[in-house]
Specification:
This is UPF0346 protein ACFFLI_06400. The protein is 59% helix and 0% strand. By secondary structure, the chain is an all-alpha fold.
Length: 73
């Protein structure tokens, strides 16, 4: 069974890390409105652009998305 993007992202959490993807994951964990069941790039991208003030740049999401796709291959 394939993971959702959120499930993948939660594997990247690390409160002691300053890596961009870890910070993204830590903040997404605290975001109660994050679309946790989504596997759709456009839905996630749109949500993050409109609602994720904790994400300093969309390239972090793009990199995380590529890592997600690679993990699902």
């Amino acid at each position: 069974m394939h993971k959702t993007f959120y499930q993948f992202l939660m594997t990247q959490r690390n409160p002691d890390s300053t890596a961009a993807i870890a910070e993204f994951a830590n903040n997404a964990f605290l975001d109660q409105s994050f679309p946790k069941q989504s596997r759709d790039f456009h839905e996630l991208s749109q949500y993050l652009e409109l609602n994720a003030g904790y994400l300093p740049g969309m390239t972090i999401f793009d990199d995380a998305w590529q890592a997600y796709l690679a993990s699902e291959a």
